[in-house]
Structures are given as C-alpha cells and as structure tokens.
Design brief:
With 477 residues, the chain is mainly α. The protein is 57% helix and 7% strand.
C-alpha cells in the first residue's frame, strides 16, 4: 500500500499511485477510455492551465478564494502552462463526457501541485481541493470550450503565418518563371499557351485566399462562454467573478478574448468550430490541387512532361537505380486528405450536439487542433523542401508548346475558326508544327508568325500580334 494512496468519490474509493499528481477521477477515466492512445493535444492542456489560472485570479478578486490557496493554484497553473508535469495528463483524447475527464485531470494535477507548494502531501485535498478550489465557480462546459478556443486561436494564427510564407515563396517563383512560355492544359488535353509564372501566380493566389480567410475567422473564436458554467446561465458564478475571469484570461494569454453576449448559445452550439475547420479544409483542398499539379509537371524525367524539376531529396526505389520520387507532393497530398477526413468528423460532431451541450467536444477539439498542426507542418515542409528549390526546364516547356497544335487558336482571328481547324488537322497528318504548316501553306510570312507567337502576345487579353500584323486575314479562305 506504500506505493498507492486511497482516494474517494461518490462512486467509492480507488487506489491511486502515490507519486501521481492526478487523482481518482483521472484514474477512472483511464479505465473507461483505453481507446486510441491519442493524447489530449498539448496545446489544449496549456490553454486549460491558463484558464484555471484566470479563474483562480478571478475567484481571489471576487473574495471567493483565499490568497494562500489561490496563489498556490496560480503558481501550479503557470508551471503546467510552461510544460511541467506533461506526463500527468494521460486521458485518451477520444473520451466521453464533453471534456469532463480532461477538466478533472487538470483540476487534480493543479490541486496536488498546489498542495506540494503549500507544504502538504499529494491527495490531502483538505489543503487544496480539485473541485472546491481549483474548479471553483466553473463547469467543464464553460472551461473546456474556452480552452479549446484559446488553443485554436494560436494554431490558426500560426497556420495563417505559415500560409503567408508559402504564398511569398510561390510569388517569387511567379516572377522567376514569368518569361517561360508553356503549353496550357484543360481536362488533361492540350489547350492555349500560358506562362509557367502565371501558373505559379495562380497557386500563390489560391493560398492568399486561404491566408485571408483564416486571418478573419480567428475573430469568431474570441467569443467565449467562461463564466456561463453548466448551460450558459452563469449559475454559481458571481458577476464580479465572470468579468474578472475574462479580464485575467486576456492578460494571461495576450489574446483578444471577449465574453459572448449569449453564453447559452456558445455553450450549446459548436458551429464556430465547424466553420474554422471548413476553412482549414479549403486550404487542404488547395494544397492537394497544387501538389498534384507539381507532381504532374515534374513527371519524367525522360518519359513525362518534365516541365519543372523538383528538389531531389531521397532515393525512390530499392530496385531501380537513380530513381527519385516526388515524395513531398505525395506527403502534402496525404496530409490534405487526412485534414479533409478530420473535418468531416468535426462536421458530424458539431451537428450532433443536443439541447444545452455538445457531448462530442473532445472529438472536435482533438480533430481541429490536430488538423491545424498537421496542415501547418505540411505547408512549411512544402515551402522549404519543394517550392523554394523548384526549377523550370524551359527547353522542355517550349518543346511541348511547339509540338502541340493548340497554337492554331491564336491564328483563328486572322483566318477564321474553320480554316484554323483545317490547318491543325493538316499539321497533325503531315507531322508538322502549326508554325511550319502556316508558313509552308502561305497563310502567314515568317515575321508575322513570329509576332503572333510571342509570349506576351499569347498570354494576355486581346488578339495575339494584332498591333504588328498589318495584313488582316480575317475571313480569308
């Protein structure tokens, strides 16, 4: 029995390891939820510790908690927020109870650490009680979602900054590749010309939208229900405590946290988390699309498009010498798909709240915080390991463009759509380029073809070469 202490709750008593900072409530949760081995995200534990610190400060200001206990709880909370006792937060992320087990885990760890600070022994809850002191004026139902929002705000800001870095890297490539004319493709078939810079510029613009959307949606997360207690009505929380708790949380986190005007609404409904996750998913969609495009454009190096060269990072085969695979694009796509799947689970969970509470907040919290971190990591690697080192193969780009028959489109305004189609068909049957066929058939002199087929002329609004081609062939047969 020396290695254990006995703790009691309304369900009975249980042995708890003598050296543990957690207590009986955590012990029961460990038995009830040996599900995934996924830990509660560290960011959420940090945020919960900060919320507990704010609540202790508010309880002291409201005269509900004596300074001796309150300051010990604050000191313990600061330690946990700084990363101490991380191994004591053991409850599975996929738990029932709307986050009660995690809240109680934090309450017990802070209480036992505060007891130590005051010179007592772990488990002597007469000195500091997990429920009577650490959880004073609170409910899981206001503390837990508030902490989720604090953690999410920080990760949303970090993700937005990561996207901004990727956007900047793509814009640099847009400038670098501005003069490289290549074949555009629609539905995987040859289309009209485009520059490689324009393609990278479009990639950058897509991520610019993601950055802006996430930057704005962070505001939605600032409205919290701290002080609303069980259902948002504030039962058992004094008014002066509620305002003091919000003020203290702002000071502790440095974030623009605000008390929700309707705390019943914020306690019941999880649509804000679904909204944020939806925008994270949108960024994942763009990552998957851009990754796929780069994977296609780098296909080769001899037997495919090979319009761009990706950085060679590792050998790609255990049997084929000198094979290098586009592993970063594949990693990025995998992460994008994972984020999409996590978002779907958040959607289902957010829609499944009932009456005054959503019981599935732990699933929402785990998936939202996980997808924010996953996507930020993937985007950062995508920038540093791929985008910043990507190179263009201008010769290859020019080759596919010249061999394509799409350039007939640029001649259509001069000779008509039908005539341009006949020219394309003839070039295909004779194994010639559009340029060669047009000159050989006497439709255009070499200098006019050259004027029409300039990169700037082919990739901007208007009729290519119209200012230089003096002879108007429109309607000629």
């Amino acid at each position: 029995m020396g290695d254990f202490r006995i703790e009691r709750d309304l369900l009975g008593e249980m042995q708890v390891p003598a050296g543990s900072y957690y207590g009986i409530h955590t012990r029961r949760a460990l038995r009830n939820f040996p599900v995934s081995s996924f830990p509660v995200p560290h960011e959420l534990i940090v945020a919960l510790a900060e919320v507990k610190e704010a609540c202790a400060v508010a309880n002291m200001r409201a005269g509900l908690l004596d300074l001796k206990r309150g300051e010990a709880i604050v000191a313990a909370a600061k330690e946990v927020a700084g990363g101490a006792l991380a191994d004591q937060f053991m409850v599975d992320a996929l738990q029932g109870g709307a986050g009660t087990s995690t809240n109680m885990n934090v309450n017990e760890v802070l209480a036992n650490r505060a007891i130590e600070i005051l010179g007592g022994k772990k488990g002597d809850y007469g000195i500091v009680s997990p429920l009577g002191h650490v959880n004073l004026s609170q409910s899981t139902n206001d503390v837990y979602p508030t902490a989720v929002k604090v953690a999410a705000i920080r990760l949303v800001i970090a993700l937005s900054e990561t996207i901004a870095g990727l956007q900047g890297a793509l814009q640099k490539k847009e400038q670098e590749f501005a003069g490289i004319l290549k074949l555009g493709r629609t539905e995987m078939q040859d289309a009209v010309p485009i520059t490689l810079g324009q393609e990278f510029g479009a990639f950058a613009e897509a991520f610019a939208r993601d950055r802006w959307r996430l930057f704005k949606v962070e505001e939605r997360l600032r409205q919290v229900n701290l002080g609303g207690t069980a259902v948002g009505t504030g039962l058992n929380a004094k008014r002066e405590y509620i305002y003091a708790a919000i003020d203290a949380l702002q000071d502790i986190t440095g974030l623009g946290i605000a008390r929700a005007e309707n705390m019943v609404d914020v306690t019941q409904n999880a649509d804000v988390f679904a909204e944020v996750s939806g925008l994270v998913k949108a960024a994942a969609v763009n990552l998957a699309k851009v990754s796929s495009d780069m994977r296609l454009m780098s296909m080769g190096p001899r037997g495919g498009l090979a319009e761009i060269r990706l950085p060679a990072l590792q050998e790609g085969s255990s049997i084929m010498p000198d094979k290098v695979n586009p592993v970063i694009t594949e990693m990025a796509t995998s992460v994008a798909f994972q984020v999409m799947s996590l978002d779907h689970a958040i959607t289902l969970a957010a829609a499944s709240g009932q009456l005054e509470l959503n019981a599935f907040l732990p699933l929402i919290a785990f998936n939202l915080l996980t997808e924010l971190k996953l996507l930020a990591n993937a985007l950062s690697i995508f920038r540093t390991h791929l985008v910043e080192g990507v190179e263009a193969d201008e010769r290859r780009c020019r080759r596919w463009l010249e061999e394509s028959l799409c350039l007939a489109t640029a001649l259509a305004p001069y000779i008509g759509h039908e005539k341009a189609g006949e020219l394309s068909k003839a070039a295909r049957e004779e194994g010639k380029t559009i340029r060669e066929a047009a000159v050989e058939k006497g439709l255009f002199p070499e200098e006019e073809i050259e004027a029409i087929f300039q990169a700037r002329e082919l990739t901007r609004p208007g009729i290519a070469g119209s200012k230089k081609v003096k002879k108007n062939k429109e309607g000629q047969t």
